[in-house]
Design goal:
alpha+beta; about 300 residues; about 45% helix; five-stranded antiparallel β-sheet; TATA-Binding Protein; 7 strands
């Protein structure tokens, strides 16, 4: 099966190839399978597996094509939800023209813009997945964070075997109701990370925290304050979730080691900039701090 599911018109300053290059940065990624021409991902729609492939045909008009590899075509409401997920995954409804005008005049960003033309922030539209990924990534290198995510997903998520490859979907918070801290520690999570994952699962699974609730707050800073009330969620984690899940273009994780290393490398500093120095630097990117960060990260890999 390789049936057309839907097509989406794509905006200016979007190139799937640039996004795929970013998505291919680690062979340890377990939630989607990118290659040079497209990306495949497993979705669970009303309890049934749906495997889709996204490509971008070369002939005009420019469009993102979703093909159905496995499963049945969803009902209209579920299909609309899937379309929305794809839009938010690739940030397709954002006008990047103002960012590109600014970045072309910026000495740090201009070379990265030229090398990554059409790159969009690859979002994590599901709040639980976004929070877990940020929690797992606290104070560890990227490779180990990927390992933790793969182990958590393989143990508690759902999977599909198709044409010799195993596709995974991230676990839903409800599956953690009876999970213990010790069980998560057996997957190499620290006790603090295990406690935080379980607390977040309980809040989201119990209807006490949701992405819609955070987006309805009057300002991104209010959403951050709500997240900071959760034990184990600090400024870096909340800023990361603002960027990758809440689609806040002003989010700026000044405490991120990768961002510090990127600026150190690009400026030739003999030390990493302090968070305060990064905040001062970000003044010239006002309104687009998250995109500046995302492009600066590309200097590292």
């Amino acid at each position: 099966m390789n049936d057309l599911l839907f097509e989406l018109a794509v905006p200016a300053h979007f190139e799937l190839a640039a996004c795929l290059e970013y998505m291919n940065r680690s062979p340890l990624e377990c939630l989607f399978r990118p290659d040079a021409e497209g990306v495949e991902r497993l979705f669970m729609i009303e309890g049934e597996p749906l495997l889709i492939r996204l490509t971008m045909p070369g002939d005009p008009p420019r469009r993102l094509r979703a093909s159905l590899l496995y499963g049945s075509v969803p009902e209209d409401a579920a299909l609309a939800g899937l379309v929305r997920y794809i839009v938010e995954w690739f940030d397709l409804d954002r006008d990047l023209a103002p960012f590109y005008r600014m970045a072309r005049e910026d000495e740090l960003l201009a070379p990265l813009l030229a090398a990554n033309d059409g790159l969009r922030i690859i979002g994590i539209p599901d709040l639980f997945e976004a929070l877990c990924w940020a929690i797992l990534g606290q104070q560890v290198n990227l490779a180990f964070a990927y390992k933790l995510k793969q182990q958590l997903t393989a143990r508690y998520g759902q999977s599909l075997e198709w044409q010799g490859y195993t596709y995974y979907s991230f676990p839903v918070p409800e599956v953690f109701r009876e999970v213990t801290v010790e069980e998560l520690c057996a997957l190499q999570l620290t006790r603090n990370k295990a406690r935080t994952v379980l607390e977040v699962a309980g809040l989201i699974g119990g209807g006490l925290l949701s992405r819609d609730e955070l987006l309805a707050l009057p300002a991104p800073e209010a959403a951050e304050q709500r997240l900071l009330q959760i034990r184990g969620i600090g400024p870096w984690t909340s800023q990361y979730v603002r960027m990758r899940c809440l689609r806040d273009a002003t989010s700026f994780p000044a405490g991120d080691v990768g961002l510090q290393n990127a600026v150190k490398f690009l400026t030739g500093m003999d030390r990493k900039p302090t968070p305060a120095e990064l905040v001062d630097l970000s003044a010239r990117w006002r309104g687009w701090e998250a995109y500046a960060t995302f492009y600066l990260w590309r200097a590292l890999y």
